[in-house]
Amino acid sequence: MWENIKTFFVGKPSREVAKGRLHLVLAHDRTGLDGGRLQEMREEIAKVIAKFVEIDAEAVEIQIETRNRETQLTVSSAIQPRNA
Amino acid sequence: MGRAIVITSGKGGVGKTTTTANLGTALAQLGHSVVLVDADIGLRNLDVVMGLENRIVYHVVDAIRGKCALQKALIKDRRLDNLWLLPASQTDDKDAVTPEDMKTLIMELKHGYDFVLIDCPAGIEQGFKNAIAGADEAVVVATPEVSSIRDADRVVGLLAAADVPARLIVNRISPHLVKRGDMLSQSDVIEILALEMLGAIPLDDQVIATTNKGVPAVLEGKSQAAREFVRIAKLLAGHEVPAPESVGFFKRIGRVLGLSASPA
């Protein structure tokens, strides 16, 4: 309860912020992918998806995350309805 | 045949040398024969942390180059019967030694001692490669900070690639900062690094004071950090060990009221 009130007024505890930052930084470190390379990959993947279905290339999202020393790559994209 | 354990961290200043000194001293107190090897060639410090800086004649590079017999380069700690230091050279640089040299040296030491603790330099370059070359296992030291954990993660990856199994010590935990939400807890660090935990050393003024004097904290015994170092040493040596102690509310109240003899 108190934690919730505190979070409401002063924001996330710095411990949580540190954890979030580490998950992200380590995912990049472990894969050797920096921000620029990741964007390049996003664009390439968007092109491949666009060959098969209609998408908004800008809306393709890419994310890397680590859990228990395993790194997962997630690509998500909304597909436009087929033009009749 | 003894075991060679490298104490490493990636980042500098997180307590590798203090950890090496205290674990080694605690293992010797438990009756094991121990040699501490300072692998930080060019920036030696284990000698001053142990308070043995005035007794160095030969060092690790002399021993490797055959300038003296290995036994001559070892300094005996007079406070305990079975504790020795092999100091680093202060004038050579890290390239003075190769991983092959270190493998041979550590193997020779393992024949004479139960534990060979290797104090690794900061970084992940040549000095690190030398320090882990002869090690059977590793202790990774990290403080609960983003930079330290990031570097530790890098080291964990390199140790895995070199087939050196690693366990973790979280150093300088401040329980009240954790409680306030302003410090990563030991379980946060374990979750992030996904490593087996040996223990967590609390931030402790006593360690600073005893290090000033060149006395490992475990020789003065009473501090919380010293007790945790001893517990970890027992764990390393395979003794039965109680769970890490946490200072509970009632115990603290007891201390405030003078009901307990232990220091607050």
Describe the structure.
The complex is a heterodimer of chains A (84) and B (264). Chain A has 84 residues and is of the alpha+beta class. Chain A has helices at residues 2-10, 14-31, 35-52, and strands spanning 61-67, 70-76. The mean pLDDT of chain A is 84. Chain B has 264 residues and is α/β, with parallel strands linked by helices. Chain B has 13 helices and 8 strands. Chain B has helices at residues 16-29, 46-50, 60-65, 70-73, 99-112, 126-133, 146-161, 175-180, 186-193, 205-212, 217-220, 224-237, 249-256; strands at residues 3-8, 34-38, 75-76, 83-86, 115-119, 137-142, 166-173, 196-202. Chain B has an 8-stranded mixed sheet with strand order 3-4-2-5-1-6-7-8, with helices on both faces. In chain B, helix 1 (16-29) packs across helix 12 and helix 5 (99-112) packs parallel to helix 6 (126-133). The longest helix of chain B is centred in the middle third of the chain and has 16 residues, at 146-161. The model of chain B is unreliable at 252-264 (pLDDT under 50). Classes of the chains: A alpha+beta (84), B alpha/beta (264). The interface between A and B is medium-sized, with 17 and 17 residues.
Number of strands of chain A: 2
Number of H/I helices of chain B: 13
Strand order of the largest sheet of chain B: 3-4-2-5-1-6-7-8
Distance between the termini of chain A: 53 Å
Strand content of chain B: 15-25%
The residue-averaged pLDDT of chain B reads 92
Radius of gyration of chain B: 18 Å
Determine Rg of chain A (CA atoms, Å).
18 Å
Quaternary state reads heterodimer
